[in-house]
Amino acid sequence: MKKTFKKLIAVMLTAVLCLGVMPFASAAFYGEHIFLRGDANADGAVNSSDALAILQFSVGKIDEGELNWRWADLDGDGTVNSSDALRILQISVGSDDPLKYDEKEIVKFYADALFASCQDPSEISYYSYYGSTMVNEEDETDYQEFDQEYDYTEYYVDGYDEYGYSTFEFCPEAQIPMEYVDSAEIEEADDGYWVTITLVEEQADFDDPIPEATFWYTANYADCTVSGLEDLWVYDSTAYFYEVTISARIDKNGFVTELYLDIPFTMYMSLEDNNGEHYAYVREEGIITDSYTFVF
Q1: d(Cα 36, Cα 34) in Å, to the nearest integer?
Q2: Is residue 49 a contact partner of residue 41, using CB atoms and an 8 Å limit?
Q3: In which band, very low, low, confident or very high, does the pLDDT at 27 lie, cut at 50, 70 and 90?
Q4: For the chain, what is the total number of helices (H) and then of strands (E)?
Q5: Is the distance from CB of 204 to CB of 213 less than 8 angstroms?
Q6: Which of 78, 177, 183, 211 is deepest in the core (most CB within 10 A)?
Q7: Residue 12 has pLDDT above 60, yes or no
Q8: d(CA 104, CA 83)
Q9: Euclidean distance between CA atoms 30 and 180, whole angstroms
C-alpha cells in the first residue's frame, strides 16, 4: 500500500468504529431530584417506607406508576417483590452486602451506581486511547500503526453543561442485558467496591457498505459513514470484539467514581474503487481504552 493510503485507512476506521465520546444511548434526566438506589417511592430517602411501597405493590394496593421501578427492582430480575423490600431494608440499616451478590445482582448494582453517578456530578473527566495495527492481507510486511488519544473534562451544574447538554449525553450506557455478560465479579476496595464485568464476544458485519449489525455496548454504527473516501469503498467488513472488560470503582454510597472500558478488536475489510475493482484486503487489530472519572 502507499503511505497516503495507509493514513486514509486509519482515518476511515476511526469513523467506522465511532467509539469513545459517543455513548450508545441516553437515559432521561429526572430534573433536579436525585434518585437513590432503593428509593422506591421517590421521596429522596431510602428507608422502611420504600419497602412498604413495594409490599403494597406486590399485593395490588398501589399500581406500577407509583413506584420508581429502577430503584425498586434491587436484584435486577425484572420483578418487584418481597425480596426487593428486604434488600431495601438492609440498605437502609447498612447491612446490605454487595460481596454476596450473584452475577445478575452485580450487573444491576453497577448499572444503578453508574446511573446515579450520571445524575448530577460537578465534572466528568474523560480519556480515550485508540491503538491498532492495520495490515494489507495480501502483503503482511506492509502495515500501518495507529495511535490516537482524547483527554478532556466536562463541567456540570444541576446535571447540564454550559451548552445545555445533560450528563447522560456524555456518560456511557448503564444498562447491560445479561445475554451480553460473560462474567461479573465484585471485590472490596478501600472506599467501596471494584466491579469487573466481561462481555461475550460480539461480531459486527458491514455490507455494501451500510452497517448491518451493532455491537451493543461499545459502539453505535448507525450514524457512521464508511463509503466514498478518496474514491475507495469498504465492502464485506467484519469486526470482532472479544474480552471487552468494564471495570468500575463504586463507593460506599453507591456511586461510580472511576470507570474503565477495555475493548480489544479485530476488523477485516475489502476495499474497492468506484469502478468495482478490488484494491486490497485489510486487517486491523487493536484496542480502545476509555476511562471516566466522576467528581461530585
Answers
A1: 7
A2: yes
A3: very low
A4: 5, 10
A5: yes
A6: 211
A7: no
A8: 14
A9: 27
Torsional sign, CA 28, 32, 35, 36: positive
Contact call for residues 248 and 114 (beta carbons, < 8 A): yes
Residues in the chain: 296
Among candidates 246, 245, 243, 247, which has minimal Cα distance to 266?
243
**Bridge partners, 234 (sequence order):** 271
Cβ–Cβ under 8 Å, residues 96 and 109: no
* Alpha-carbon torsion, ordered 43, 107, 129, 293, to 10 deg: 30
CA–CA dist 279, 48 (Å, integer): 67
Which residues share a beta bridge with 290? 128, 261
Q: Report yes or no: 232 and 8 within 8 Å, Cβ to Cβ.
A: yes
Task: Return the residue matching grid coordinates 436525585.
Answer: 34
DSSP character for 165? Answer: -
Closest to 168 measured CA to CA, from 19, 27, 292, 18: 27
Q: What is the pLDDT of residues 70-104, one digit of tens each?
A: 778 887 788 888 888 888 888 888 888 899 999 99
SS3 197: strand
Distance between first and last Cα of the chain: 49
Which phi and psi angles does 258 have, rounded to 5°?
A: -140, 140
Selection from 61, 120, 74 nearest residue 255 by Cα: 120
Cell numbers that stand for 158 in this block: 444541576
Whether residue 86 contacts residue 51, with contact meaning beta carbons closer than 8 Å, is answered with yes
Average pLDDT value for residue range 20-32: 34
Q: How far apart are CA 170 and CA 162, in angstroms?
A: 13
Torsion angles phi and psi, residue 164, rounded to 5? 90, 10
